[in-house]
Amino acid sequence: MPQPAHAPLGGIASARIDEITALHRQLEIARLRHAAEVSELRRQVLEARKLAGLGELLGTTTHEFNNALTTILNYAKLGLRHRDQPTRDKALERILSAGTRAAKITASVLGMSRSGSARFEPVNLHLLIEDVLVLLERELMKYRVQVEREFTPVPKVSGNPGQLQQVLLNLLVNARQAMPGGGRLILRLSYDEPTGLVDLMVRDTGCGMTPDVMRRIFEPRFSTKSGPDETGKGGTGLGLSACKEIVDAHRGRIRVESAPGKGTAITIRLPLQQQVAS
Ligand SMILES: Nc1ncnc2c1ncn2[C@@H]1O[C@H](COP(=O)(O)OP(=O)(O)O)[C@@H](O)[C@H]1O
Ligand SMILES: [Mg+2]
Questions:
Q1: Which of 114, 137, 152, 216 has the most crowded CB, counting CB atoms within 10 A?
Q2: Is the pTM of this model over 0.90?
């Protein structure tokens, strides 16, 4: 007996296979599209983070630069008004010191804006900290934050100076914002010779964090602040996630210790300048 039943069955089967193949293709296209979307969104987040960092930097430096400029202008006017030598000497001294400060600010900003290049080089963390403090000196004074340096000699680390400045700036701004009524900001640099690691600790005596907050601080966009403060900083929730990304790229570690009402200590642990690649 011929088996005519096979023919329609075979037809149905091959139709199903075609259908499944088409579905497969559609799924694959959807998957690729999804992957492309995810990678585009990721790129956008990174871009947003960079821009937020740049915005904060711009706000801080313009403000600091303007302060130096105001000093220069006021003392120049004073010197012109008062023709006696002591007043003019004093005015010129003030102008010189404000001018020097303005130059430091521009040097620091130039350093940070070079963070676009991902080049690593030996970095002196002492100098790097001072460069960043120049930018925040006045702001810290205004909020009655006392800076304490606990520095011991440390070897140079391997890093990108601009990116590391950005990390430190973010940590210092967070610390300052955690102390609206003033407090102490302790900066500690130490070197652990056996492990060959350098620790940079930023500690504040501010509001601290609950364990719930602490768990989420590295999430992009996680913020407990209602928006930027009067200096235009914070509230984006991008600061610490950017810090983490940069520190990871340096093969470093970030450790957070915090207690509500007591304060917070954030330690960045960085490896020394890379020896010959192993
Ligand atoms: N030094 C600190 N003291 C207390 N809370 C902090 C400190 N640093 C960070 N945080 C908490 O972590 C959150 C995320 O910080 P960050 O990523 O810098 O974003 P943002 O400063 O824009 O809120 C902050 O909103 C705050 O709740
Ligand atoms: Mg912040």
A1: 137
A2: no
User: Tokens 């060959």 correspond to what residue?
Assistant: 196
What 3-state DSSP class applies to 259?
strand
Which among 71, 119, 124 is positioned nearest to 99, based on CA atoms? 71
**What number of H helices and E strands is found in the chain?**
6, 7
Higher per-residue pLDDT: 267 or 3: 267
Query: What 3-state DSSP class applies to 194?
Result: coil
Ligand 1 pocket member 53 (CB < 6 A): no
What CATH class does 57-271 carry?
alpha beta
Atom 10, ligand 1: which residue's CA is nearest? 174
Going from the C-alpha of 246 to that of each of 30, 116, 162, the distances in angstroms are: 33, 12, 10
Give the distance (Å) from ligand 2 centre to CA of residue 71.
29
Element of type H or E holding 87: helix 85-113
Evaluate the CA torsion angle 183, 180, 231, 246 in order and state its sign.
Answer: positive
DSSP β-bridge partners for residue 203: 186, 265
CA geometry: angle 114, 251, 159, nearest 5 deg: 30
Parse the chain into domains and list their residue ranges: 57-271
Give CA 208 to chain center in angstroms: 19
The answer to whether the CB of 213 is under 6 A from ligand 1 is yes
Tokens describing residue 4: 């005519």
CB within 8 A of 208, min separation 6: which ones? 178, 258, 259, 260, 261, 262, 263, 264
pLDDT in tens, 71-102: 999 999 999 999 999 999 999 999 999 999 89
Q: Which ligand is nearest to the CA of 220?
A: 1
Nearest bound ligand to CA 222?
1
The residue that leads in pLDDT, 233 or 36, is 36
